[in-house]
Amino acid sequence: MTVLGVAVRAGAPLGGGAERVELADGRTVVVKKAEASALRAEAAGLSWLRVAGATPVPAVLDVDPERLVTEFVPPGAPDSAAAAALGSGLARLHAAGAPAFGAAPPDGPSAAWIGHAPMRNEPAPSWPEWYAADRLLPYLRTATDAGDLTRDEAAVVELVCDRLPALAGPAEPPARLHGDLWSGNVLWSPAGAWLIDPAAHGGHRETDLAMLALFGCPHLDTVLRAYDRTAPLADGWAQRVPLHQLFPLLVHTVLFGRGYAARTAEAARAALRAD
Questions:
Q1: Which domain of life is it from (predicted)?
Q2: How far apart are CA 215 and CA 188, in angstroms?
Q3: pLDDT tier at 273 (50, 70, 90 boundaries)?
Q4: Is 152 a catalytic residue?
Q5: Out of 75, 166, 185, 230, which could bridge 88 as a Cys pair, Cβ 3.0 to 4.6 Å?
Q6: What total of structural domains would you count in the chain?
Q7: What is the CATH number of the domain that holds 181?
Q8: Which of 241, 243, 209, 236 is nearest to 225 (CA)?
């Protein structure tokens, strides 16, 4: 077996279809196997997220319909300095912008993925309209049809969709999002934090920050303070965290079932209380 035209010396699984691969020329790379459209979307996303001064992402070394080869980033441990750099770097990444809410990265497919769930990336004129139509409602229908959300649980999410223009907060320009920024997709290295496994698209910058909080990011308070110093957040952003967490919670309900149903419904109720 060869990678980048070089014989493979050894490999070790990293999870999520990825493998750390040692090449005969001494290099170490990451090789990921997945659906061809998912590989194409991830490669396009990684390239789009490479913004000067922003949090770094692994370089794309090769991509074809069967595998994606990226730079290997050695693991390390989180600390407050790295967390502060992550916050300011995310602010710069978001400020790089996107053509529209829902826009795919250049050369990225509109039919993309978040984890193992399909995700549609099509431009829309406003964040509330797009967030309801292309993020909340598709996963709500899937979860409800599968019996993973009850009618009452679904109704409260539908009410959020109906009230989104009032819940969305001050209008903001489309941000360049990682798109799946739960804590597991922050790789802490000896050189600081890196972002991996994106589901990149144009969206609302508060979504990335809310996803960081969803499953517990190390030094989150430091990350958020550094972000706010670099690009001040709009008034009321903390009260809108449940609104932005509703999308990843619906995705988890679709992928993993009723174990996430109660948390999804509570996020919807909390979003409505913030109005």
A1: Bacteria
A2: 16
A3: very high
A4: no
A5: 230
A6: 1
A7: 3.90.1200.10
A8: 209
